[in-house]
Amino acid sequence: MELMIWMPIVMAILGLIYMWIKQSWVMKQDAGDGKMKEISDYIYEGALAFLSAEYKLLAIFVFVVSLALAAVSFIVPTTHILIVVAFIFGAIFSAFAGNIGMKIATKTNVRTTQAARTSLPNALKISFGGGTVMGLGVAGLAVLGLTAFFIFFFYFFMDSTWTNTMDMTVVLETLAGFSLGAESIALFARVGGGIYTKAADVGADLVGKVEAGIPEDDPRNPATIADNVGDNVGDVAGMGADLFGSYVATVLAAMVLGNYVIKDMGGAITDNFGGIGPILLPMAIAGAGIIISIIGTMLVKINSNDAKEAQVMGALNKGNWTSIVLVGLSCYGLVTWMLPETMQMEFFGEGLQEISSMRVFAATLVGLVVGAVISSVTEYYTGLGKSPILKIVQQSSTGAGTNIIAGLATGMISTFPSVLLFAGAIWASYAFAGFYGVALAASAMMATTAMQLAIDAFGPISDNAGGIAEMSEQEPIVRERTDILDSVGNTTAATGKGFAIASAALTSLALFAAYVTFTGIDGINIFKAPVLAMLFVGGMVPVVFSALAMNAVGKAAMEMVQEVRRQFRDIPGIMEGTGKPEYDKCVAISTQASLKEMMLPGLLTIGFPLIIAFAPLAFGMDKLAIAEMLGGYMAGVTVSGVLWAIFQNNAGGAWDNAKKSFEAGVEINGEMTYKGSDAHKAAVTGDTVGDPFKDTSGPSMNILIKLTCLIGLVIAPILGGHSEEGANLNEIKSEVNVEVTATNNNDLIAATIITTKTVNGETVTETETFNGTIEEIEAKAEKSGKIVSMDVNKNKETKTKEVKIIINDKD
Amino acid sequence: MELMIWMPIVMAILGLIYMWIKQSWVMKQDAGDGKMKEISDYIYEGALAFLSAEYKLLAIFVFVVSLALAAVSFIVPTTHILIVVAFIFGAIFSAFAGNIGMKIATKTNVRTTQAARTSLPNALKISFGGGTVMGLGVAGLAVLGLTAFFIFFFYFFMDSTWTNTMDMTVVLETLAGFSLGAESIALFARVGGGIYTKAADVGADLVGKVEAGIPEDDPRNPATIADNVGDNVGDVAGMGADLFGSYVATVLAAMVLGNYVIKDMGGAITDNFGGIGPILLPMAIAGAGIIISIIGTMLVKINSNDAKEAQVMGALNKGNWTSIVLVGLSCYGLVTWMLPETMQMEFFGEGLQEISSMRVFAATLVGLVVGAVISSVTEYYTGLGKSPILKIVQQSSTGAGTNIIAGLATGMISTFPSVLLFAGAIWASYAFAGFYGVALAASAMMATTAMQLAIDAFGPISDNAGGIAEMSEQEPIVRERTDILDSVGNTTAATGKGFAIASAALTSLALFAAYVTFTGIDGINIFKAPVLAMLFVGGMVPVVFSALAMNAVGKAAMEMVQEVRRQFRDIPGIMEGTGKPEYDKCVAISTQASLKEMMLPGLLTIGFPLIIAFAPLAFGMDKLAIAEMLGGYMAGVTVSGVLWAIFQNNAGGAWDNAKKSFEAGVEINGEMTYKGSDAHKAAVTGDTVGDPFKDTSGPSMNILIKLTCLIGLVIAPILGGHSEEGANLNEIKSEVNVEVTATNNNDLIAATIITTKTVNGETVTETETFNGTIEEIEAKAEKSGKIVSMDVNKNKETKTKEVKIIINDKD
Fold first, then answer.
1. Can you tell me the ipTM of this complex?
2. Taking CB atoms and an 8 Å limit, are B529 and A743 in contact across chains?
C-alpha cells in the first residue's frame, strides 16, 4: 500500500494531539472563585444531563437503524454488513466530537470570565482556545474516522490493491455508513439542540423578564441555567455535529466521484498512489486542512487590553484568511502532485473530455471563493450598522407589523446574491472539472472547518462568560470585556451559519452527483411527470419541516413556562434570593421536550425518501424509474432547503441585530431612540419571531438536505443498476451499438459507438464519437475492442446504406 | 372547415349576451339616494382613474413588447409577424374584461347596499349578479378571442385544412402571442393592483384608525375611497386578469399538446373534426364551461330575508357543485365524441402507448377533483372556527411574536396537503393520458372559471356595499345584511385564491410540457450542472419577487400616509365633517405608487428568462443546451412559486380570520376575550403582516409562474430544434440507427429502431422497440420502411454477433 494513504490519518492525529495540548492548557487556567464556579458547574452539569439524555435516545435510534441497514445488507449483495459497523462508528465519532466540544465549552466559559477580570487579550486567548479545541476535535475525529475506515475497507474488500471501479464502489458504499451515522447524530444535535436552546431562551424570558421583571441571566430565574446550557447545546454541539457531518459527507462524495473519474479513464490509472490518486485527493486536502487550521488559530491574538471589537474581529479575520489562502496553496500542490496531468471525464451529453489537473485546481478555488463570499453576503444582510438592518430599525417605528415585514423581506431578498453565488459555483466548478470538480470545491471549502468552528464556538463561549459575569455579579469592566468578545461572537455566529449553509448546499450537490452515478441512471429528467411530482414534494418538505420545528419550540417553551411559574409560586424566598431555584428541573424539561419534539421532523426527514423508494418498489415499479423519482425528490429538498435556510437564518439574524441596534441608540425620523421605546418593543417582537428562525428551523435545513441526500446514497444500491442482483433481475447486458451519421460530404462520416445497458426497457447509454472517412472510422472502431469489424457502403442509386458490423459479444 | 370549430365561439357569444342582459338588469336596479350615490360615484371614478393610468402604462409596455416580438418574428422564420397582432389583442381583450369587471363591480356595490335596506335575498341577487357579469365577461372574452384567432390563423397558415403538425405548430406558436398579451395585463393588474389595494388599506388604517382614531370606512378619512377602490382593483380586476390569463394559457397549452398527440399518431388522423379533434377539444370544453357556468349562477339564490351565512354559502355551493358535476358530464360527452377511441401517445422513456379516450376523460376528472379539493384545503387552513385558526388565536395571548410564528407555521404546514394534491394530480393525469392529460385536467378545472369568478367577485362587491352603508350612515340592519354577504365573501375569497393557485400551477405545468415539446429537447436533465444551477436560480426568483412586492406595499403605503397626514393638517374642518377631503389625490397617489413599484418585480419576471436565453446565445452556446437550462429555470420558478403562493396566501388568510375571531369573542385560557384586548392587538399585528402576504405577494406568484412559462414558450422557437433556420445552421438530419439487444435466450432478440436528429452534437431520439425472434424482427423492421433489410447472426464459437443492416437513406 502506498504511504500517501496514511497521510490524512497522521494529520488527523497531529490535530488531535494539538487539541489535547490546547485542552490541557485551557483546563489549567484559573476557574475563578465560589459563585462563578458554582454557576459554571451548573451549566456543565446541565450540558452533561442533555448529552446523557440525548445519548440514550441515540442508542435506541442507532440500534434500530443498524437493524435496518443489516437487513439491507442481506438483501442487496453489494451492500456489505460492515456498513452497520461504519454507521455505528460514524455515530459514535460524531457524538464523541460533540462531547469534547460541549465539555470544553462549558469549562472554558468560566475561565474566560476569570481572565476578563484582569486582561482582555487573555480572555480572548482562553475563549478562542476553547473554540480551537472544539474545531480540532471535530475535524480531527472526522478525518481520522473516515480515513481509518477507508483504509480498512480498502484492505478488506480489495486487499489494498486497485482492482476495478466496481470493487471500489463497494468500499465507498460501505464507507457511506460512516457518513450516515455522523449525519444522524447531527439530526439530533442540530434539530434537538435548536429546539432546546430556544425553548429555554423563550421560557426564561417570558416568565423572567416579562412576568417577574428580573433581568436576563438573573440567578433567581430557574430557567437561566437551562438558557445558558442551551447556548452550548445549540451553537456548540449542534454546529459541531452539523459541520462534522458536512465534512465527512463532502469528502466521501468526492471520493465516490474520484472513483468515477478512474472509470471514465478506462477503469484503471497508473500513478504514484496505487492508482487511486483521485480517490485519495479529497482526504489529503482534508488532512492538510487540519494542519493549516492549527496555523490559522495560532495567529488569532490581540495585545492591547484596551482593544475594541474591530481589533478582535481583525485578529479572527487574520487567522481565517491565512488559512483560506494556505488551503488554496496546498490544493495547488496536492492536485498537481496527486492527479494525472490530464484526465478523461464523462460530461453528460457531451461525451468524454480531457480535463487537466489545473482545471481541478480551479474548481477547488471556486469552493474557497464561495466560502469566503457567502460569509460577506451574510454579514451584509445581518450585520449591525448595515443598510438592511437600518431599514428594519426604521420600519420598527410604525410597529411590530412593519418590523416583521421588513425582516421577512430582508431574509427573502438575501437569497438573491446567495443563490446566484451557489448557482455560479455549481456551474463554474462543473465546467472546470465535472461533478468531481463540484465535490472538490466543497472539499476545499470544508478544509478550513477546524478554523471555522474555532471562530464559531468562541461566540457562545464568550456569551456564556458574560452570563457568568452577570450571574456572579462581577464588576462592570468584566462584563464590558466579555461583551466585546460576545459582540464579535454574534457576527461570527451569523457568518458561521452562512458557511454551514454553503457547506450543506455543496455537500448535498456532491452527494446528489454521487447518487446519480451510484444508481447508474443517465440523469434526472424532470420532464417525466412522476419525477416532476417528486420535485414538488421535495420542495415542500423543508417548508413543512421548518413549521414543525417552529411549533416544537413553541410547545417546549410552554412546558418551560409552566415549570418556571410553578417554582416562582412554590419555592419560598426565591425572588428574594434566599430560596434556591431548582435549575435541574428546568434543564430536564428542556431536554425531554426538545428530544420529544424533534421526533416528528426527524421522521419526516427519514421517512419521506424511504417511502418514495420502497412504496413503488412494493408495487413492482421499475427500479431505475424509482431512482430517478428519488433523485427528483432530493433535488427538490436541496433547492427548497437551501432557499429556506438562507431566508430563515438571515431574517433571524437581521431581526436580532435590529433589536440590538437600540442598545447603542438609533436615529429614527431624526430622533435618537433607545431601549424601552415603542420602536424597540416592536424590534423585540421581531426578534422573538427571528429566534426560532435563526437557531432552530433555519440551521435544521442543513441537516435535512444532507441527510436526505445521504439516505438516497445509502439506498442507491437497492435501486441501482450496478448491483449483481439487479443484473439478474433486470437482464442487464452491455451491448455495443453503432450509429452511423452521414453529413453532406459523401466521403466523411461520423460513427458513434454507444454502449447501452437495457434495464426494463430503460436505456443507460455511454457515447463515443469518431469522425472521419469510412476507413478511419473502421480502424478506430476495431481498435476500440468493442467492434470486431465494421463496413459501411453507400449505394447512391438505391439511396441506401449498407452497414455491416461484427460486434464483440463477450460482455 | 368543420362546424365544430365554431362551437366555442358561439358559446362565448351566448355567454357575452347573457352577460349583457345581466348587466342591464343590474344597472336598472335602484342606485340609492344622495350620499350613497355620491360615495359610489367616488369609488367608480377612482377605479376609472386607476384603469386609465394603468392603460397608459400598458400602452407603452405593449408597444415595446410588440417591437421585440416583431424583431423575433423577423429573425426566426417559423415565428410569424401575426404574433404581434395576437399579442396586442390578447392585451386588449384582457384589459377589456378587467374594465367590464371593474365597472360592474363599482356600479353593483351601491345597488347592493340599496337592496339590503329592504331585502337580503335581493341584495344577494344583485351582488352575485355583478359577480356573474364579471365572470362571464372574463370567460366569454377569453374563449371568444382565443377561438377567433385560432380560426383565423388556421385559415391563414393552413387554409383551414390539416396539412401536418409542423404547420399547426406555427399556428399555435402565433396563437401564443394572444396568451402572452393576456398574461402581461395580468402582471399589471395582479401585481400593480395588489400593491394598490394594500397601500391604500395600510395608509388609510395607519393614519385614520391609529393616529386620528376614526373608524374604518369613515368618510372623513381622505384615503377611504382609495381603500374601497383598492378592493375592486385588487380583488376584482386583479383576480379577473389572473384567471383570464390562466384560462387562455391552459387551453393553448392543451392545444399544443393535442397537436403532439396527432404527431405521435403518425402526423395525421381521420375524424369528424377535420383531423384536429384533439386540438379542438380543449376549446370545446371551455365553450361548454361557459354555458354550464350560466346554469350554475342561476342556481344561486336564497328566499328568506332572515337567512344567515350558512344559507348564503349553501346557495353558492349549490351553484358551484352543480357546475363542476356538469363540466364532468360534458367532458365525458366531448372526450368520447371528439377524440379517436384509442390514441398513440409518446411517453418519455417508455415509447408509444395506446391510450383510450376514456383515460383522457379520467384525466379531466383529476382536474375537477383538484379544483374542488384545493378549495377545501384552503378553507381548512384559513376558515373561521377551524383548528389552525383557533391555535393562532391561542398563541395571540402571549403577544404578537407568538401570533406571527403561529401564522407563519400555519401557512407553511398548509403546503403539505396542497403539494401532495398537486403532485398526485400531475402523476395521475400524466399516467392516464400523458402531458395532454395534464393539460386537459387543467382545462377541465378552468371550465368553471366564470362560475368561480362570479363567486369570487361577489365578495369585494359585498365588502364595498358594507363600506357604503357605513359611510352613508345607514341603519344597522343594512350593515348586518351586507356583513352576512361580506363574511361569506371572505370565505369565497380564500377558496378562490386556492383555485387561482391550482389553476396557475396546472397551467404552468401544461405550458412547461408544451415548451419541452416545442423546443424538441428530449427532457430536462437536472443532472447537467448548468440546468441544476438554473433550477436553483428559478427557485430563488419567487422569494425575491415576494420580498420586492412586500417592500413595494410598504413604500406606497408611506406615500399615502404622508398625503393623508397633509390633508388632516391642511384642510380646515376635515375632522368635523365640514371640510371635504380630497379623495382623488389619495387615489392618484395609490395609482402612481402602485404602478411605479410594480416595475422592479415585473422586470425581474420578464428579464430573467430573457437573460438566461439570450446571454448564452450571444456567447454562442448550443441552443438545445440553453433550452434545457431555461426549462430548469421554469421548473424552479414553478415549484418554488407554487410553494410560496400557498404559504403566503394561507398564512395571510389565517392571520386575517384569527383577528376576525375576536369580533365575536374567543376563549383563551378559559376566559372570553374580545376586540381591544392585548391578544386582539397581537392578532391585528399578525393581520398587518398577512395583508401583503395574501393580497399582494401571494397572488402575484400565480402571474410570475405563468408568465415565466409563457415567455419560455414564446421564445421556444428561437431555441428550438424545429425551426427552419435551426435546420440549416445545425445540419439536422434524420437518421435511422439500429440497436441490437440480445437477451439470454439465444433465439429471441430485441431490436430498437432509433430515429435520431443530431443538432450540434446533441441527439434527439425517437425509439421503437421490436421483440421476437430474429426472423420476426427482420420482418417488422422491413415493414417499418426505415430499414430495407436486417440480418443478425450469432457465432457462438467466436462469441460475436454479425449484424447486417441496409438502411433507407432517403431522409
1. 0.85
2. no
Please answer yes or no on whether A735 and B731 come within 8 Å at the CB atom.
no
- For A740, phi then psi, to 5°, come to -110, 120
Instruction: Provide the residue count of chain A.
Output: 811
Total length of chain B: 811
Determine the Cα–Cα distance for residues A708 and B40; give it in Å rounded to an integer.
Answer: 57
Which of B505, B719, B733 lies closest to B631, judged by CA?
B719
- Helices A193-204 and A224-231, axial angle in degrees (round to 10): 150
Q: Which three cell numbers stand for residue A320?
A: 481565517
pLDDT attached to residue B764:
54
**Which pLDDT belongs to residue A163?**
87
Chain A nearest CA to B790, separation (Å): 9
Residue spans of the domains in chain A: they are 3-724, 731-807
Helices (H), A619-749: 623-664, 678-692, 698-719, 724-730
* pTM for this model (two decimals): 0.86
Torsion of CA B565, B570, B573, B575, to 10 degrees: 0
Secondary structure class of A519 (helix, strand, coil): helix
Q: Measuring CA to CA, which residue among A189, A171, A125, A35 is closest to residue A706? A: A189
List A352's β-bridge partners, or say none: A346
A800 touches chain B (CB under 8 A): yes
Burial category of B571 from C-beta neighbours within 10 Å (exposed 0-12, middle 13-18, buried 19 and up): middle
Q: How many CB atoms lie within 10 A of CB A756?
A: 19
Q: CA–CA separation, A602 vs A184, rounded Å?
A: 9
Given a contact cutoff of 8 angstroms between Cβ atoms, the answer to whether A138 and A243 are in contact is: yes
On chain B, the residues whose CB falls within 8 A of the CB of A516 are: 527
Q: Which three cell numbers stand for residue B705?
A: 409562474
Q: How many cross-chain Cβ pairs, A to B, lie less than 8 Å apart? A: 316
- Per-residue pLDDT reduced to its tens digit, A37-81: 888 888 888 888 888 888 888 899 899 989 988 988 887 777 788
Using CA atoms, how far residue A197 sits from A190, A218, A411, in Å, is 10, 17, 22
Closest to A637 (Cα-Cα) out of A461, A508, A482:
A508
Cell readout for A637 is: 429538498
Q: Which residues of B touch A758 (CB under 8 A)?
A: 741, 750
Closest CA relative to residue B391, chosen from A681, A477, A550:
A550
- Which set of grid coordinates corresponds to residue B457? 367577485
Residue ranges in chain B whose pLDDT is less than 50:
1, 722-748, 755-761, 809-811
Yes or no, beta carbons of A401 and B805 under 8 Å apart: no
List chain A residues with CB under 8 Å of B416.
540, 544
**Which 384-403 residues of chain B touch chain A by CB within 8 A?**
395, 398-402
Judge whether B742 is closer than 8 Å to chain A, CB to CB: yes
d(CA A760, CA A455): 53
Tell me, what DSSP letter sits at residue A300? -
- Sort A222 into a burial class: Cβ within 10 Å, 0-12 / 13-18 / 19+: buried
Low-confidence ranges of chain A (pLDDT < 50): 1, 722-736, 738-748, 755-761, 809-811
Burial class (CB in 10 A: 0-12, 13-18, 19+), B765: middle
Kindly report the CA angle at A511 between A507 and A516, in degrees rounded to 5?
150
Tell me if B99 sits within 8 A of B137, measured CB to CB. no
DSSP string across B514-562: HHHHHHT-S--BTTSHHHHHHHHHHHHHHHHHHHHHHHHHHHHHHHHHH
Give the three-class secondary structure for B786: coil
Cell reading at A342: 490530464
Residues 6+ apart with CB under 8 A from A380: A386, A388
